[in-house]
Amino acid sequence: MERSIFAAVIGSFLGILTLGGLAFMGAMPGAEPTAQPAALPAPTPGAGAEGNWRLLDPATYENISIFPVVASYGQDTSAFLTLEEGLATGEVVVRERGYEETGLARGRDGSPIYLPPTPTPSASVNQLVLINRSKRPLLLLAGELVSGGKQDRIIGKDRIVPAGAPPLPLDVFCVEHGRWTGVPQFSAANTIVHPSVREQAAVNKDQNNVWYAVRNGTTAGVPAAAPPARMTLGDIQGAIANNGRTEAYEKIYQSPAVGVSIDDFVAELQRRFVYAISGLKGERVVGVVVAYGGEIAWSDIFASGELFDHYWHKLLRSYAVEALARPTIRVVASRDSASEFLRRLNGREVQETEPGVYRWREINEGRLAQIELEALQPKPMTLHRLMLHRTS
Questions:
Q1: φ/ψ of residue 228, rounded to 5
Q2: Into how many domains does the chain fold?
């Protein structure tokens, strides 16, 4: 079966990132961590929160299977602010680097006063500045897209920004190569990029590979003619393969030729997902394990059902885009295979810690990579756990 150009390009990323055992310790809230050596024992499979998870039968459609992960107990995550909420209310400000220095002052009582920014010549493609004005710690997820500014960017790493932290230099990746115009402030975070792009940012940490994944997974070049009443998956995949030279990620959702079909694809997946979880009693969905064409590829699991609900629609759209860019193999993955994505990996581990705020860890075992973000306040909890099968 022919593979799409997107799948072929993503499939060519062969280098497996070898990580040393490093731990990073930050000096103060909001500061970038500093490196320290670490020698940590690998946790046993099933330890900790994994024992509270249960895997349901999947919701399947075309070439994608989504296994709900449910739990009878969830953490209280109400203390945390999400990026989408913060930008919408103005409690969080994200600006191009070089526009933040004159945008913040302090009143006599020490409260922040936000002034119109004055540009300086220090703008950077791969770094923004974030200010958390709220009274709650801010949760950031790798792959969240912030729109506006000079170019759209995606967050490079899961992390927590404490309330009252100084302006934070934020590592990001560009997903709109070629544009450098517009206002310096970002306005929204309504999208999470699809897994192939998230992998390049969160695990491989490579801007060139991010651009490759974006170029070959978007459809801005599709003609604006009216689409058929119902396009097939093959029609959409062909459009992505043959017209994917755009470098503006969100065009994939705006293209007149495929936008309706993506929405239809997402709506059908959501309908089947709701049916798959309809019999739950005393349990909440806290995450999912995702397979494409019988291959388990990805999981996103959260500390609470409320946190999962906040991200679910954005995640579902991202999984659908990935499905449209992969071969149309209609094979359902087994629950036994999916359950492997609930275990903790045993492999080389890297940690970063900002004392009293968060601990981030990445574990690599063969072709599998696992990333966990643990909040240290108000009490220790793993807010988000991502696991993926590296593309090759």
A1: -60, 165
A2: 1
